[in-house]
Write a structure and sequence with these properties.
GO terms for molecular function: ATP hydrolysis activity. By secondary structure, the chain is an alpha/beta fold. Helix content is 34%, strand content 21%. The protein folds into 3 domains: 98 residues, no CATH class; 91 residues, Beta-Lactamase, CATH 3.30.450.370; 215 residues, Rossmann fold, CATH 3.40.50.300.
């Protein structure tokens, strides 16, 4: 029978080895930390974990940490543990029970924005916009599988051979995606996009060089005038960060409805704000609530402005329908290499879910989107707005754009080439 601690902290698995102790889950770190961890007595760690899971019933994580400290101090008094390693033992045991095990130090590092586990010995992080080895690894393939399945089991999210691809929002707001074998033939893969809680202001985004003050002021005026704006770019280009910053220009008296697949938007100082989040269906496909469903619902909630976190399917039609039925000022993002490419994608999305003639789709896009912003993460890790384009009309083949700002690669800045009116 599961102990109270096991029920409280989740369905993590105890794996017995030949010595009838918990499997080795000691992380490998670099530098001084690696030397300290190498000195930890794994048998003692396994003994303490085993006793905690079978004897103690802590009601909170604080109580669990206290119980771990008591157990460690007993070992200190008997001389089995060096005093200088006390905190390493406590943190390691705590993280292996309720945290993300060897990944927890990466989660606690504020300079890391993304964690990518490609295999037991291959973990990368994004730090300050650049990818680099994380300096940690798992003890075995089994250890990796236990950590990944444990993360999802504690949130009661199914991750199994029958459901091998699963998304999860962690308690701190971070997003996790896991893929199991055989979909990932080399073994389970885990990607965590951390929610850092750091929300750059418009001034801070300007200071970073993402765009200049003139462009930010231009966009601020466009938002106040309720012009609809679409931000496009690749994965981790900074679309949501820019959208969060631009939302600060929305007048506080407006009623805002946000619609997202997974809640990432963090709008500030908006008193009349309603957040809606899509829900995937069951394995049988029942109970799903799509982005398109939520946009329909938002239209019935007397919105002054609708913000869609990401457009990638049938919701594209509902979005232009909303913008063309008395709901201007929409803000949204999507994946596209350029403004022109994004408009082609939107056209294809809409044509795939409606019987509207192609020309009608183009005309609807022209009347529902005023400005397109393309943002990109450069090879050096910096985020830059590549262009701000005004939608000016369409011909028989495509939507026509007029550039207002264009990125100057030589001088690393945006250049204003028209007034955008």
């Amino acid at each position: 029978m599961a102990t109270r601690a096991e029920r409280y902290y989740g369905n993590f698995t105890r794996v017995e080895n030949k010595n009838n102790s918990l499997a080795d889950t000691r992380p490998v770190k670099s530098g001084e930390s690696e030397d300290n961890m190498a000195e930890l007595d794994q048998a003692l760690i396994n003994e303490i974990k085993h006793n905690l899971l079978t004897t103690f019933s802590p009601d909170t994580q604080l109580a669990l940490r206290r119980e771990i400290a008591i157990a460690i101090d007993r070992k200190l008094s008997s001389g089995n543990i060096a005093l200088r390693l006390r905190n390493e033992y406590i943190s390691y045991i705590f993280n292996s029970i309720v945290g993300l095990d060897v990944l927890q130090p990466l989660m606690d590092d504020p300079s890391i924005t993304e964690i990518m586990v490609n295999g037991k010995n291959t973990v990368f992080v994004e730090r300050h916009g650049k990818l680099q080895p994380a300096g940690v690894k798992f003890n075995s393939q089994q250890h990796l599988e236990e950590v990944i399945t444990g993360i999802f089991a504690r949130a009661n999210k199914e991750l199994s051979l029958g459901h091998p691809i699963t998304d999860l929002r962690l308690e701190d707001g971070s997003r996790a995606n896991a893929v199991l074998a055989p979909i990932a033939p080399d073994g389970p893969v885990l990607t965590i996009r951390k929610f850092t809680g750091i929300l750059p202001t418009p001034d801070e985004i300007v200071a970073s060089g993402c765009l200049n003050k003139q462009a930010m002021e231009f966009l601020a005026e466009a938002i106040k005038a309720k012009e609809s704006i679409f931000i496009c770019g690749g994965t981790s280009a900074g679309k949501t960060t820019l959208l969060n910053a631009l939302s600060t220009f929305i007048p506080v008296q407006e009623r805002i409805i946000t619609v997202e697949d997974s809640a990432e938007l963090q709008l500030r100082n908006q008193p009349n704000l309603v957040k809606l989040e899509a829900r995937p269906g069951t394995v049988e496909g029942q109970g799903s609530v799509t982005i398109a469903d939520l946009i329909k619902t938002a239209l019935r909630m007397r919105p002054d402005r609708i913000i869609v976190g990401e457009v990638r399917g049938d919701e594209a039609y509902m979005l232009i329908h909303a913008a063309n039925t008395g709901h201007p000022g929409t803000l949204c993002t999507g994946h596209g290499n350029s403004s022109a490419d994004m408009l082609i994608r939107l056209t294809n999305m809409i044509s795939g879910c409606t019987r509207l003639p192609y020309q009608a789709i183009l005309r609807n896009l022209v009347t529902s989107i005023r400005y397109m912003i393309n943002i990109k993460r450069l090879s050096n890790g910096r985020r830059r707005v590549m262009s701000i384009d005004r939608v000016i009309g369409c011909d028989e083949h495509s939507v026509n754009l007029s550039p207002v700002f264009i990125y100057d690669e030589i001088n690393d800045c945006l250049k204003n080439i028209s007034d955008g009116i």
